[in-house]
Design brief:
The protein folds into 7 domains: 150 residues, no CATH class; 103 residues, Immunoglobulin-like (Sandwich); 110 residues, Sandwich (Immunoglobulin-like), CATH 2.60.40.10; 219 residues, no CATH class; 165 residues, no CATH class; 105 residues; 46 residues, no CATH class. It is α+β, with helices and mostly antiparallel strands and 960 residues long. Strand 9 and strand 10 form a beta hairpin. Strands 12, 14, 15, 17, 18 and 19 form a 6-stranded mixed β-sheet that branches. Strands 2-1-4-8-7 form a 5-stranded antiparallel β-sheet, with no helix packed on it.
Length: 960
């Protein structure tokens, strides 16, 4: 037994201990450090100590047990049974805690120690002292090994336990290198410190490099090898050396050692130092920077620029007569020269009256600068030399006349450029007009297609025809009104910015600008043709989709629509550029303008624009959307199965038509912004006319909104959204009227744009909701009622409460309508069930206050909120019902737990009367059979009171 235990403990402890040690040594120690015999001996010593301690403890426990059995057989049998029972519980009872067993074993050990007396305690203390001594020896060896590793010495190979570490002689190497770079004082550069550098770095010529090196072992002599010389290092400690080296040559910096026998060893150092030379300074004259002709009494202001890598020392202005060697120098101011700036800009004045010059003399001048290079001496540089010629009075007058003529020519050129800037937007205007005409043609084709597909529906055909005619007239009104405004109101504006003698250049400018107008118009034509081609392609794809109904065709149609919208936005941006130019005039060629607006069907449009009806376009845009919304409302009513497919196609095409009208209305509003700014230039009378026209447009908009609100819708969901849209339009109209009253007309487009966007979203939603309403109606007739109990009702309330904020308002209304009757029945079943439970169990009634009767008010309130469409308010009574249900469940759970506890206490009292332990008669765990057998055997034997108490606690734990 002893040999088997010793072998098992030895193998297990050795494997665990040495496995951990070798893994840690391989992961943490560097490859240059190897595990020595001393470490192995130390580990073996610790392992043997643990083995001896565990073996002696087992042997001691066996001897103590035999001794106790000889002294008190009854108590020894109790210990055996207690240990066996404890192990059995740990092995067969799931989740059983070993706290009580450990406490029991500790008490057993205490009794054994008291029974044995002083000898058992002495043996334990002796073993612990031996173990402590062995651990102290291990700590000393580990400390010695760590010191050897840090100092870089290899570990010894001594086979003895107390052998000392060998310290053989090794080659020196650089352990640490510290470098301090001190640039010259004149450079203004800061001092740098580098540690353990082995790369390339740069330093200014003349920098002093202080090196401090720390070697692994001490050497007799250490020096540093420079690119051009060899210097000795000064020893500061046993293995530390220091040297200061001037950096004048680029190259590597290595260390070299010399031993007593004269042998040399080259050590690592600095790989390379790049020496940066101090470059010469530079000087330049930035103004006037050319040769001049002046009078004797003039003064010349000179601007100069000085540059250098480091602070400058001084600078001069040097001048003298041409042909003479004498040069006069005037010092220039160098402010803040000590802060390291390398660029200085300044000004100085040269007074010719002080130089005693004669007519015809020539004077040379330049700027010279000098740096602070203290190593190789100051370096000087000079700027370009310029000449001043002293001229007569007649020459000066002629020069001024020539300069005036040059300025006049430059003024004429600048005015011509200004005219170019005014005329160029006219080309964009013409291109935009053509784009509007192309778009009108495309919309006409769409409507004609609608008429052809719905020829049997006379009412629908008449409505579409009326919309098309109204749209055509109002588009032409917008275009001709803008043309009339440009022709009538801007020539005087252009005249205000031109000089009186500019008339002689008008004919030439007109000829040049006409060519530019033609070129710009042709560049926009490409964009219009591309839009027209995409529209034709879209029409073809729609025709194919009617017959094939393919997903790929639908994706292609969506992609083409996106490209079409993108191209139309580009045209819109060009049109907006025209509106931003507030000055156009009659310089636009009449023939070019007629070419851009030519067409037999534009006469009425031009007449309306000449009359000043600009705001008719804005009124038309709002009216388009009112008519379109009415048509969509009619189409959104529940349809029969035969007309469903054709109605889907109509709604899809009308949706695209609405999107095109939205883009068109946005462009019309931008045109209105431009014309309104033009109207402000015509005076207050034009502003009054504009305000009156906007007021008329708002009145027409109000009539359209009232007609929109009077349109009936059958379904309640559609009615709710319809009423919301109606009140939004009413509020928008009221805000616009308030803006007109305050004379803030520029805010009209800002208020109208969100309404247009919401109208487009409403049209899209209406077409989608029509299909949803049809599906919901069919599902409502096919659904069956189901009985839901308390748990199902709770889950439904939780679902509605948790996801109510995430669902759309329309979906929640439909879901409530579909389940309204079912929820009412469930609520009634819930109330009836609780009343029946209260009647059958009067003792439980105290836990149910407030009773279920108080919930009916919450449910009725929630149902009333749902019918009124106040979905957010309906969540409040729902949460109250949830809280009541949760509170009742908690009370029932507490009541059930209290009943179990009472029943458990009564059972324990019955068990303690007969001093016997009841064994459960039925259990599903097979491991319980062994437990019952063990307990039955324990009952037949007389046991101490302590053992009986422990068994009772274990059994109660199992019962719980």
């Amino acid at each position: 037994m002893f040999a088997q235990d010793l072998f098992e403990v030895t193998v297990r402890t050795s494997l665990w201990f040495f496995g951990v040690v070798w893994v840690l040594s391989a992961a943490l120690l560097p490859t240059s450090v190897r595990i020595a015999d001393e470490l192995v001996v130390a580990l073996w010593t610790g392992s043997v100590a643990l083995i001896i301690l565990r073996t002696f403890r087992q042997r001691s426990e066996q001897r103590e047990l035999r001794w106790l059995e000889a002294r008190n057989p009854e108590f020894a049998g109790y210990l055996v049974n207690a240990h066996a029972f404890s192990g059995l519980l740990l092995e067969h009872v799931p989740g059983f805690s070993s706290t009580l067993i450990r406490r029991h074993l500790e008490e057993t050990d205490t009794r054994l120690a008291k029974a044995q007396g002083f000898h058992g305690v002495a043996r334990r203390r002796t073993l612990r002292a031996i173990l402590a001594v062995l651990l102290v020896i291990d700590l000393f060896y580990i400390k010695a090994l760590g010191t050897a590793v840090v100092e870089g010495r290899p570990l010894g190979r001594s086979p003895f336990l107390f052998a000392t570490l060998q310290r053989p002689e090794v080659a020196p190497r650089v352990l640490d290198l510290d470098l301090l770079l001190s640039p010259p004082d004149y450079s203004g550069l800061p001092t740098r410190r580098l540690s353990n550098t082995d790369g390339n770095f740069s330093a200014l010529r003349g920098t002093v490099a202080t090196l401090r090196v720390h070697l692994t072992v001490a050497v007799e002599h250490l020096g540093i090898v420079l690119p051009d010389q060899f210097l000795d290092c000064t020893r500061t400690s046993e293995r530390e050396y220091e040297i200061a080296v001037p950096v004048n040559t680029s190259g590597p910096y290595h260390f070299r050692t010399t031993d007593a026998e004269g042998g040399e060893t080259v050590l690592d150092g600095i790989r390379k130092i790049n020496v940066i030379p101090d470059l010469p300074p530079s000087a330049s004259i930035t103004f006037p920077a050319k040769d001049l002709e002046l009078k004797r009494g003039d003064s010349l202001e000179i601007a100069y620029s000085l540059e250098d890598d480091f602070p400058l020392q001084r600078a001069w202005l040097v001048h003298g007569k041409v042909g003479q060697q004498d040069r006069a120098k005037h010092s220039l101011s160098l402010d803040d020269v000590s802060n390291g700036r390398s660029r200085i800009e300044g000004r100085t004045t040269l007074h010719l009256r002080e130089l005693e010059l004669e007519d015809g003399d020539r004077l040379e001048y330049a700027v010279e600068v000098e740096d602070r290079d203290a190593l190789s001496g100051p370096k000087t540089s000079s700027s370009t030399v310029y000449t001043i010629t002293v001229g007569t009075l007649d020459e000066t007058i002629e020069r001024h006349l020539a300069e005036q003529q040059r300025l006049r020519d430059m003024l004429v050129d600048q005015l011509g450029g200004a005219l170019n800037a005014l005329i160029e937007p006219s080309a964009v205007l013409g291109a935009t007009m053509r784009s509007q005409l192309e778009r009108l043609t495309a919309i006409e084709q769409v409507l004609l297609g609608l008429l052809s597909s719905q020829a049997e529906d006379e009412v629908f055909s008449e409505a579409v025809t009326e919309v098309f005619e109204t749209m055509t007239d109002r588009l032409r009104l917008v275009r001709d009104r803008l043309s009339s405004r440009i022709e009538a109101g801007l020539w005087t504006v252009v005249r205000m910015g031109l000089p009186e003698d500019i008339g002689e250049y008008e004919r030439d400018i007109l000829a040049v600008e006409q060519v530019r107008i033609d070129a710009a118009g042709e560049s926009v034509q490409d964009l219009i043709e591309r839009i027209h081609a995409m529209r034709e392609r879209l029409s073809t794809l729609v025709q194919r989709y009617r017959t094939e109904r393919s997903k790929a065709l639908l994706d292609e149609i969506e992609r083409l629509i996106k490209q079409l919208v993108s191209s139309m936005r580009k045209v819109q941006e060009r049109f907006a550029e025209v509106a931003r130019h507030e000055r156009l005039d009659e310089l636009i060629n009449r023939e070019a303008l007629e070419r851009h607006t030519r067409g037999d069907d534009l006469e009425d449009l031009q007449r309306r624009l000449r009359e000043g009806d600009v705001d008719g376009a804005l009124e038309a845009a709002d009216r388009y959307f009112a008519e379109l919304s009415t048509m969509l409302d009619e189409l959104s009513q529940p349809l029969d199965a035969e007309g469903q497919e054709s109605s889907d196609r109509l709604i899809e095409r009308l949706g695209r038509f609405a999107e095109e009208l939205t883009v068109l209305s946005r462009e019309q509003r931008e045109v209105h912004d431009g014309t309104e700014r033009l109207a402000q230039l015509d005076g207050q009378a034009s502003s009054d006319r504009l305000a009156e026209s906007i007021q008329e447009a708002l009145l027409a908009l109000g009539e359209a909104i009232e007609a929109f609100g009077a349109e009936p819708l059958a379904h309640r969901t559609l009615q709710t959204r319809h009423r919301e849209m109606f009140w939004k339009l009413r509020r928008g109209q009221a805000r616009m009227q308030e803006v007109v009253r305050r004379q803030e007309l520029y805010q009209i487009p800002v208020l109208a744009e969100p309404l247009l966007v919401e109208l487009r979203e409403y049209g899209t939603w209406l077409s989608t909701e029509m299909a949803n309403v049809a599906q919901a109606s069919q599902a409502q007739h096919e659904s069956e009622r189901t009985q839901v109990r308390l748990a199902a009702l709770l889950a439904l309330f939780e679902k509605q409460t948790g996801s109510g904020h995430g669902l759309s308002e329309q979906r929640r209304v439909k879901e409530f309508e579909a389940r309204q009757e079912q929820l009412a029945e469930d609520h009634q079943d819930l109330v009836t069930g609780f009343e029946q439970m209260v009647a059958e169990e009067p003792a439980v009634g105290a836990f149910l206050a407030p009773g279920p009767s108080s919930w009916s008010g919450d449910f009725d309130q929630a149902q009333r909120y749902f019918e009124e469409g106040r979905l957010e308010d309906a969540l409040v009574p729902q949460r109250a019902i949830l809280e009541n249900i949760g509170s009742l469940l908690e009370k029932l759970d507490q009541a059930k737990k209290g009943a179990k506890e009472k029943l458990g206490r009564g059972q324990r009292r019955r068990t303690s009367i007969g001093k016997q332990v009841r064994i459960p008669e039925k259990t599903e765990d097979k491991r319980g059979e062994a437990l019952r057998k063990e307990l039955a055997d324990a009952q037949r034997e007389p046991v101490p009171a302590r053992y009986e108490q422990l068994i009772r606690k274990y059994f109660e734990r199992i019962v719980r």
